[in-house]
Amino acid sequence: MIKKSNENNDLMINSSLYRDLSRRARLLISLAALACCSCAPSDNEKADDAKDLLVYCSEGSPDGFNPQLVTSGTSYDATANIIYNQLVTYKPGTTEIAPSLAKSWHISDDGLRYTFNLRDDITFHGSQIFTPSRSMNADDVIFSFNRQRLSSHPYHGISGGRYPYFTAQSMGQLIKDIRKTGEHQVEFILTRPESPFLSILATPFASILSAEYAQQLNRLHRPEWIDSKPIGTGPFRFERYEPDAYIRYKRFDNYFNQSKRVKNLVFAITPDAAMRFARFSAGECDVMSYPLPVHLRVAQKNDLKVVQTPGLNVAYWAFNTEKPPFHDAKVRRALTMAIDREAILQTVYDRQATLATNPIPPSSWAYNKNIQKVTYSKRRATELLAEAGYANGFSIDIWAMPIQRAYNPNARKMAEMIQQDLADINVDARIITYEWGTFLSRLAQGLHHSVLLGWNADNADPNNFFSPLLSCNSAISGNNYAKWCNNQFDDLILKGRTSAAQSDRTEYYLKAQEVFKREAPWLTIAHANNSVLIQPEISGLTVSPIGNINFEGVTIHEGKSKPAETKERQ
Amino acid sequence: MFATLLKQIGTLIISLLGLTVLTFILSLQSDTPVHTYQSNSVFIQYFEYLQFLLDGNWGTSSIHKRSVLKDFLQHFPATIELILLAMVLAVTAGLGLGIVASTRRGGWLDNTLMTSSLIGYSMPIFWWGMLLVLLFSLTLGWTPVAGRIDFAYDIEPYTRFMLIDTLLHHNQYGFSAFLNALHHLVLPAITLSTIPMAIVARMTRSSLLAVLKSEYIRTARSKGISNQRIIWVHALRNALQPILTISGVQISIIMSGVIITEYIFAWPGIGKWLLEAVSRRDFASIQGGVLALSIIVIAFNLALDFISIYLNPRLRRPS
């Protein structure tokens, strides 16, 4: 029976906030609360607000609150889809481009001019130091890009003046100019046609910040607050960050997309995966990020909900083609045949991944279905090695990354399995691991024979795999750790990047994958699923193939009542 | 007495200088320099380093780009809250158990208590903490797994001491937020207090037993004073002196314990902050954190020395 009196109601709501208490603990606390209830009036509305809460156990602290300045997925999750919006976005759970702050766009025939028509009903968040006086317009878009693009911009040098993603994508060279062609219209002029441009604009670094807020901060002589006290247009507004503990967001009621959202969103920062799972199991969080394969198994056994999507990622074993014996394609092909990838899928990924045939995952529109899978055959591998003049085998190093990533939960284990397979074909492998920073810097110097690594795409365009990982340019100073430079392949991916029609692009990329397979600079291992665990009462949560988590549209069922409340209301 | 104080202060200054030399050497070893020095001479650089410290410039975290001193001060209240509760638990429970054991000397209760305290003393803290979480949080559901308060309570960190902040939000939540914060403190505090509690219990027992054998207690007994009064009024006061000393020494045990405890319970204090700095190779934070923690331990021991000198006139003469 629901008690009617206000006083009782207050008490009841207060106790309903109190989850997961045993009868004894509740008894003790109730006694203490009773002792002081006369002096404890509470506000019904606030308590109800507090109940409409979603707790996300995240894997780490963000590096900052401006997606222009950071590159980690953890920071993107905490900012790009929550506080901010971009001109275009991906449809939830897909890689299809959809309107966001721009309601429509037009691309000129030569592919050099992109005109965006902005929505005129977008409001920025407010805070104690800022109340927006106007809706979002072209000035905000120009401010957001020019801050990153122009070293003369007054905000360019604020907070270090480094824009890693903008620089890595060569946006400075690509964008010739950005012009305001109307109050709510903006035009990007490019130096060359760039087909992935729209996909790139859907990436977190392209979030739109408020130019008016920047002016306000200038007046306050605190321009750096633009990066630490973020103001965006997104579905939630930033409220508070306690370093290494939590981030608190509140629903933004003037959000242009009136999707269902919870009133309060909290990121409970819990870096240890076992601890995250314990908190999730005890009901302290509603959503758990990056579960380990073992957690997924336990969750499936216990009928817990898992949200899973095939990831836009790839785990690979790259051969340093600059070093013998890997300069010989025959040797590389032989080694790819010698590895039992099914066993790796079973042991390392606990079957939460699919076998990789190409460097891009099957969900990509440029995926070549006709490429033959590498067949696991030790006999054929030994024959190929003999043909290449290595009948007596050789010795190599395998560098295994020291950290866990979605695409590779345990590189060390994977290296050990590969080591065993190689021993069978007379190849002696030594496993090498360094601390992550050292590992990457030594890799960049090309000190490795071969390396187990992977890639998580940050936009859905296939070029996001080809150019950064396998182009000649990136072999010199990029992420091409096979140091592989093949002119035919390079030519094909350049054509793919600069052609406007998707049919042409597809054709180039299909051919590029054939060259890749023939030359075998990597053994492609797996495309891992992106997963989160959610409590049964949560619905509407999507994880994008890129790995971003999106809390827009997430609701908690009415049935979700904390134990104390259920008992009180019966 | 003045000479003793002077000697203590001299010791403090030498310890602090030694500490800064060590952290300075550490800073020279790191790949990313914490401070920019004007001089090329290492000797002068050391004095520049001292100047930076005195100015409150403890460097900037290479990961978060935040001031190390500010970070430290933000995390510190959480640690203090945990340590204080753990100390109160350790001292009160330890004293109680020690007194009970000494009055039942040789009996089954004495044996049980002393065996338990030996187990408590030898239990690795990370293992003990995880066992407690497994039993009380995950199996019985009596205590929270981690954190300082249920997120349903939106507590603005005015003082950063959660128990105080929840009371400052009294108008909004009544006392339920305070109780919830206390509830979150229980398990970490028990974990952290176990080893000091065992030490205090054993120390109290042996110290009390030694006092109870002395002449003046025998005289008191012969006068017919009740056993209760003898223990609580006459014996305990004298037995407290070594217990106080041993409690002070335990601050460094507690400090190392708090690092592990905070990690186990995702407690956002200094310990977790330092461990994460280590895992990220954030040398500025490691250096600043280690220096600050060491200063606290030295200052605490010095304060305790002063209290002992004040309480015990025999210590006032320098030996």
From TrEMBL, chain A:
Name the Pfam families on file. SBP_bac_5 (PF00496)
Q: Which domain of life is it from?
A: Bacteria
Signal sequence coordinates:
none
Matching entries from CDD domains are given as: PBP2_DppA_like
UniProt keyword annotation of Repeat present: no
**Alphabetically ordered keywords of this record:** Signal
Tell me if Ion transport is a UniProt keyword of this record: no
Q: Which residues form the Solute-binding protein family domain?
A: 96-474
What SUPFAM superfamilies would the database entry show?
Answer: Periplasmic binding protein-like II
InterPro entries (alphabetical)? Peptide/Ni-bd (IPR030678), SBP_5 (IPR039424), SBP_5_dom (IPR000914)
Its family remark reads: Belongs to the bacterial solute-binding protein 5 family.
Protein name listed in UniProt = Dipeptide ABC transporter substrate-binding protein DppA
UniProtKB/TrEMBL annotation, chain B:
Please give the CDD domains that the UniProt record associates with this protein: TM_PBP2 (cd06261)
Record keyword Transport present: yes
Keywords of the record, alphabetical order, are: Cell inner membrane, Cell membrane, Membrane, Transmembrane, Transmembrane helix, Transport
The UniProt record lists the ABC transmembrane type-1 domain at 76-308
Q: Which SUPFAM superfamilies match?
A: MetI-like (SSF161098)
Entry keyword annotation includes Membrane: yes
Membrane topology reported for the UniProt record: Multi-pass membrane protein
Residues that span the membrane, as ranges:
12-30, 82-101, 113-138, 181-201, 243-266, 286-311
Tell me where it resides.
Answer: Cell inner membrane; Cell membrane
Q: Which Pfam families match?
A: BPD_transp_1
**Classification via InterPro entries:** MetI-like, MetI-like_sf
Q: Give the protein family.
A: Belongs to the binding-protein-dependent transport system permease family. OppBC subfamily.
Stated name of the protein: ABC transporter permease subunit
- Give the organism the record lists: Kangiella marina
The record lists the lineage as:
Bacteria, Pseudomonadati, Pseudomonadota, Gammaproteobacteria, Kangiellales
